[in-house]
Amino acid sequence: SQCGDMAEAGGNAGSPGPGVVPAGEGAELAAVIGATVPTGFELMAAEEVQEKLGSASRISRDRGKIYFEVPARGLPQVHRLRSVDNLFVVVQEFKDYQFKETKEDALKDLEDLVKKLPWTDPLKVWEMNNSLKKKKTKRKKHNPQSTVRKEKLNSDAEEKEADQKDAKKEEDCAQDTAGVEPADGQDTEKTPEVASQNEEEEEEDNNEQSDAKDELQAGAGTETKAGDSRTNDGEAKVLKFRVTCNRAGDKHSFTSNEAARDFGGAVQEHFQWKADMTNFDVEVLLNIHNNEVVVGIALTEESLHRRNITHFGPTTLRSTLAYGMLRLCDPQPTDIIIDPMCGTGAIPIEGATEWPSCYHIAGDNNHQAVKRAANNICSLLKKNENKESSASPGIPLDIIQWDICNLPLRTGSVDIIVSDMPFGKRIGSKKKNWDLYPACLMEMGRICTPGTGRAVLLTQDKKCFAKALSRLGHIWRRGQTVWVNVGGLHAAVYLLRRTWERAEEKRSFW
């Protein structure tokens, strides 16, 4: 899946890389797939792709993206990856695209590029992806409606706020009547409004537009030739489309809005498709990162990180980030894994789904959080029952309300602790963290198995965490640190290993 040799494209010196790999006579169609992943966990996602698909990945210079090649028949397996948020098929990639100096010339080059791109095979892959999605129509239809149901039925103010953010994102999508979607990369990384927000899953969508604008959608039409689709009655219908442009870099003479508008106009002229910002069949992606340009077609309808959560809280963690944290601690069969500050349960639910041979315990001191987590577990059980069309055996997960500093667990009885600690922004405060963090680490050290136990903890309050860890260096030894972007906040995931030192016991529970 590496990029190709240097070549000319439309009079523009650059180095195009492959998109869909053309199939020779009798050969199988193969595609280069682009995937957006939680920033900081690109290597973890590449490991999962290698393990489950047998494909080597290339990590993009544009953080939060990886590329890998798969046969088109492997699309169902690609959708089952746990570490990816959104997927698209690469039409073509330019490693060193030479933009013209003036805005007019640069935009004219992008327009001219449309008719020179190898669209045929990527559209075949998109069509195959559509056929795959048709088999899951009922489940797909359920997802967008769940957001509406939440807004109507949920009395919890924080959950309503999360839904309103989703609604705002949809309004943003309707800002351009030409059927193009702008998203300047540099405008989205340091938005003041986002800088004060915690790891709320919806907020992450708003801020990381590079990922969120890849809220990729593919329609229900089956593409038969450029610009045509067949309805159930066999009548030809014109496909509807939009262009989403994500741009990062300060040396461009144009905005993402202008690039999307002009590129989208050329796409419309080339295919005779109809522009539609909201009810589209095809989403064409134009990703520009400095001199790297990638043109793609969306394969996912909505971000895959929403897969486990139906009841959101103020700081709901992405399921994809939860997967990365769990994978970091390398769970083994029969391990006991706890999340002592589980919130809405994203981490333990992901753990119980992906590592069913382990036993998972979730807990929180907040009654509302425990209730939301329990509701999310019930939703997962119902989904499993529907999938299997029979009584589900359940999942190896229990949930309890408890005090993080006084856990009702036996000393040395836990193998792994994975938790998203309070950032001190939307939950708690930075001042309280100075007492909370050392108390948490001490209690975690008590319940964790000496010598073999480990903990993976996420926090944005890095200064406080480092101080607490230095006071408890006899219990916890710092291993790997992964720097992540969570809702616009620069956070860290710490892998800690339990030393052989005996932890002080506060009281016996047994």
UniProtKB/TrEMBL annotation:
Q: Where is the composition biased (Basic and acidic residues)?
A: 148-172
Domain (THUMP) ranges:
182-299
Q: Which PROSITE patterns match?
A: THUMP, UPF0020
Q: What is its main location?
A: cytoplasm
Which BP terms does GO give this entry? Answer: tRNA methylation
Q: Which Gene3D superfamilies match?
A: 3.30.2130.30, Vaccinia Virus protein VP39
Annotated spans, Disordered: 1-21, 130-233
Molecular function per GO = RNA binding; tRNA (guanine) methyltransferase activity
Report the Pfam families cross-referenced here.
THUMP, UPF0020
Q: Spans of biased composition, class Basic residues?
A: 132-143
Give the UniProt entry's GO cellular component terms.
Answer: cytoplasm; tRNA methyltransferase complex
Please note every region of biased composition (Acidic residues). 198-208
Q: Which UniProt keywords apply?
A: Cytoplasm, Methyltransferase, RNA-binding, Transferase, tRNA processing
What the record says about family reads: Belongs to the methyltransferase superfamily.
Q: Any idea what this protein is called? A: THUM3 protein
Which species is this UniProt entry from?
Eolophus roseicapilla (Galah cockatoo)
